[in-house]
């Protein structure tokens, strides 16, 4: 396949989630987004920008309805819409709705008002684009997620389970976030998968909201709790005459440390006593909770997982699409917020990631302290273009300052040994030519 100088080049972004109640209205990447759009406005390429779903967080608006949400968006972010208008004068901008902005497909007014800013709203769940002799398939990805798919896409009154999570959890977090000691609750939208929300809340309470005196008093106890449980068990065996603890040896070793040894001895004694109580109470409690879990399973109260498998449903859909339409080179989606680029059959599967903050869990070095969630950004655009040897797909990283300097405390860094995440974007891939002729029965 020979690349033509006039072949179009596609830049793809998704999952901006701009908008929402109260603190969700903050756009941490607005400056970077404006710079990216300004750069596209001056490109000499025959380019098109595809915004592949969830450009706006319309689900997160709970105090206004319908197209009135668009009024809020244009009032809050006038510079963004003016830059869209300017960029759209130079290159086509195509917007595909996602689940969070599904209602864009429900009202003619959205299409008309976006057109005024040179944005072409496609009121469908998927589109295709030519690239050389091949094609690209775009969808947001909620179609593969049982908690966010629509039977009647574009129906503003259809509310999958994800809608209730966003209106009752995410939006409420946006309204309450400023009440905390630090403005962190709004980041609940960055917690994926959603099963991690309880642990994230516990982590933020402990490291941010808890009274500092209580936190610093609890840290040595929780840090040494594993050792204390062992000591409590050994003490129980000593009392039962099964095993004799080398108490004198331990005391002699600690005595040589002076005041430090005395402090450690005191902490270990207190911890062992606490651990003993916890063990005595925890054993029967474990069996009670286990029985409750079995009862819940029998009644089928929770029949659906909260999250979709991050890759496999899309890989399966891509394999099926490539088999049915061998001219398709790229299956491009978003939704799960995880940048991905991998070969599937005769094509590639691409996830465009998110411009939202991402959180990475790090366990503490010891004890039973809550995990730490390090923040990061992976702002990027996927560039897809025809080349002489096939269709090239690559991530273009957009630099943004590391947020952990302001959001991770010294205590969190110390307890995790500073193991901050170093997320990377996938490497460039070229999809080579494929046999575009349908296979005949004689050839099978």
TrEMBL record:
Entry-linked InterPro entries: Calcineurin-like_PHP, LpxH-like, Metallo-depent_PP-like
Domain called Calcineurin-like phosphoesterase: residue spans: 11-160
Acidic residues biased stretches: 434-444
Any Pfam family hit: Metallophos
Residues passing through the membrane, by range: 213-243, 263-289
SUPFAM superfamilies documented for this protein: Metallo-dependent phosphatases (SSF56300)
GO MF term list: metal ion binding; UDP-2,3-diacylglucosamine hydrolase activity
Region named Disordered: 419-444
Keyword field contains Glycoprotein: no
Cell inner membrane found in the keyword field: yes
Keywords linked to the UniProt accession: Cell inner membrane, Cell membrane, Manganese, Membrane, Metal-binding, Transmembrane, Transmembrane helix
GO cellular component, one term: membrane
GO BP field: lipid A biosynthetic process
Domain of life assignment: Archaea
The protein, known as: Metallophosphoesterase
């Amino acid at each position: 396949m020979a690349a033509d100088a006039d072949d179009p080049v596609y830049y793809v972004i998704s999952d901006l989630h701009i908008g929402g109640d109260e603190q969700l209205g903050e756009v941490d990447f607005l400056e970077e987004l404006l710079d990216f759009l300004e750069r596209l406005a001056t490109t000499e390429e025959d380019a098109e920008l595809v915004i592949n779903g969830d450009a706006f967080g319309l689900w997160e608006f709970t105090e206004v309805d319908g197209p009135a949400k668009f009024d809020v968006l244009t009032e809050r972010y006038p510079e963004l819409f003016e830059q869209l208008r300017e960029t759209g004068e130079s290159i086509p901008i195509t917007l595909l709705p996602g689940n969070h902005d599904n209602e864009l497909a429900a009202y003619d007014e959205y299409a008309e008002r976006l057109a005024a800013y040179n944005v072409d709203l496609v009121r469908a769940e998927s589109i295709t684009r030519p690239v050389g002799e091949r094609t690209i398939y775009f969808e947001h990805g909620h179609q593969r997620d049982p908690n966010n798919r629509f039977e009647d896409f574009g129906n503003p009154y259809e509310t999958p389970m994800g809608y209730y999570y966003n209106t009752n959890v995410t939006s409420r977090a946006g309204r309450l976030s400023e009440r905390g000691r630090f403005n962190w609750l709004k980041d609940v939208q960055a917690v994926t998968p959603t099963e991690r929300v309880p642990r994230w809340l516990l982590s933020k309470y402990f490291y941010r909201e808890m009274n500092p005196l209580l936190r610093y008093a609890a840290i040595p106890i929780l840090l040494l709790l594993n050792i204390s449980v062992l000591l409590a068990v050994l003490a129980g065996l000593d009392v039962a005459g099964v095993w004799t603890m080398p108490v004198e040896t331990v005391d002699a070793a600690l005595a040589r440390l002076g005041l430090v040894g005395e402090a450690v001895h005191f902490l270990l004694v207190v911890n062992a006593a606490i651990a003993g109580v916890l063990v005595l109470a925890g054993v029967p409690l474990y069996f009670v909770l286990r029985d409750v879990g079995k009862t819940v399973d029998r009644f089928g109260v929770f029949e659906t997982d909260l999250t979709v498998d991050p890759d496999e449903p899309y890989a399966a859909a891509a394999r099926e699409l490539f088999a049915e339409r061998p001219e398709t080179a790229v299956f491009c989606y978003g939704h799960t917020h995880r940048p991905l680029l991998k070969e599937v059959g005769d094509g590639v599967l691409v996830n465009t990631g998110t411009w939202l903050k991402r959180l990475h869990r790090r366990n503490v070095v010891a004890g039973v302290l809550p995990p730490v969630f390090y923040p990061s950004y992976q702002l990027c655009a996927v560039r897809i273009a025809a080349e002489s040897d096939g269709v090239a797909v690559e991530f273009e990283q957009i630099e943004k300052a590391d947020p952990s300097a302001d959001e991770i405390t010294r205590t969190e860094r110390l307890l995790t040994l500073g193991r901050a995440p170093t997320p990377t974007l996938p490497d460039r891939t070229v999809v080579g030519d494929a046999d575009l002729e349908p296979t005949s029965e004689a050839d099978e």
